[in-house]
Design goal:
The chain has 4 helices and 20 strands. It is an alpha+beta fold. The protein has 4 domains: about 80 residues, Beta Barrel (conserved putative lor/sdh protein from methanococcus maripaludis s2 fold); about 110 residues, Elongation Factor Tu (Ef-tu), domain 3 (Beta Barrel); about 55 residues, RNA polymerase II/Efflux pump adaptor protein, barrel-sandwich hybrid domain (OB fold (Dihydrolipoamide Acetyltransferase, E2P), Beta Barrel); about 80 residues, Helix Hairpins. The strands form 3 sheets. Strands 1, 14, 15, 16, 19 and 20 form a 6-stranded mixed beta sheet that branches. A 6-stranded antiparallel β-barrel has the order 2-9-12-11-10-13. The chain has a 4-stranded antiparallel beta sheet with strand order 6-5-3-8, with no helix packed on it. A hairpin with a 2-residue loop joins β17 and β18. α2 packs antiparallel against α3. The chain is elongated and about 140 Å long. The protein starts with a helix and ends in a 20-residue tail after the last strand.
Amino acid sequence: MRALFLTILTIMLVPLSSCGKKSAPGGPPPAGPPEVSVVTMQTQRVALTTELSGRVSASLTAEVRPQVGGIIQNRLFTEGADVKADELLYQIVPASYQAAYDGAKAALAKAEATVAPLRLKAERYLELLASEAVSQQDFDDASAARKLAEAEIELAKAALETARINLAYTKVTAPISGRIGRSAVTNGALVTASQPMPLATIQQLDPVYVDVTQSSTEMLRLRKALESGQLSSADGQAKVLLLLDEGTQYPEPGSLKFSEAFVDPSTGSVTLRTLFPNPKLLLLPGMFVRTVLEEGIKDQALLVPQRGVTRNPTGQAMVMVVGADEKVAPRVIKVDRTVGDNWLVSDGLKVGDRVIVEGLQKARPGTPVIAVPFGIKPGAAPAAPAPPAADQH
C-alpha cells in the first residue's frame, strides 16, 4: 500500500516540475528592418526629344508633259529605272515640225535677199539727194522700204527660232535625275501640248523629305523653355532619328530643314520638314514613319526610374524616399515627360535624395529600412577583399 502511494505521488510531481522549467529557444529571432534598393538623385545632361509621325515624300518630283502635240513615235526608257536629267524619254513624230522649221529658214533667206537691193537703193538716193537729183520724198520712200525689209528679217529670225524650239520639243527629255515610274502612254498615242495628264513622273529618292506635324501648343511650350533658359538649343542643326513602321531604327540620321510659317486651322498643328539621306532607297514616298526630333538640351536634369514612381488617389505622381533618419517618407513630385525608362522631374526632388525603386511593398511610411544602392542584390554580403599577391623576386 505504501508503494502504491509513492508511485501516485511521483506521477503528480513530474508535471509540476516540468512547468517550472524555461522553454528552450527554438523559434525565429525577431526580424530587423527590411532592405530596399534606392537610387540617389544626381543631375545630368539630357537631350530632350519628341516623337512625331509623318510620311516620306521625294525631295524632287517632276511630271513629264509634252510641249507640242503629235503622235508618240518611240518610248526610250525602262519603267522603274533611274534616268538622268536631259535624257531622251519619248520621241514625237517630227515630220511636220521639221517642215515648219525648213519653211521658216527659207523665209529668212528670202527676207535677207530682199533687203540687199533696198539698202543699195537707199544709199544711192542719199548721194543723189545732195545734188538734188532726186526729191526728198523719193529718198524717204527708199529709206522706209529698207527699214521694212530689215524688220522682215528680224521677224523671219523669230519665226525660225520658234520652229527650231518646236522641233526640239518633239524630243521629250527628263527634266530632273531620279527614278521614273510607269508610262501613261504607249507608241502611237496622240498627245497634246501641256496636257493635264503627265506622260510619266520622275522622283528623286536620295535624299527624301519626311513631313511631320507638331502641335502649336507644344511648339510654344518649347520656345518658352528655350527663352527662359530651362533648355539650351542643340549645337548646330537639330538632329532627327527615324523609326520605321515595324519599329526598327533607320540607320541614317536626318536634319530639320524648316517649319511652316502658319498653323493649320483644322488641326492646330505646324508642319515640320526633315531631310534624310536615302542611299539604299529604303524610304519610298508615301511610307508612314515616326521621327524622334531633338528639341533641346537640359543641363541640370533629374531623372527618376519609372519603376519607382506611383500615383496617389488624387492622381499625383509620388515616390518613396529614405530620409537621413533611415526612415521611409512619401514625396509628391512633378514630372514633365519620359526620357527612356525614366521620368524627368521638374519639382519635388533634389540632388542627394534617395528614391526607393525596389522593395516598395516593404516600404511603409515612417518605418526604418536598410537602403541598398540599386543594382546590388539586397542581403548580399560585400565582396571580401582579394588576398594580396605574393611578391616575386
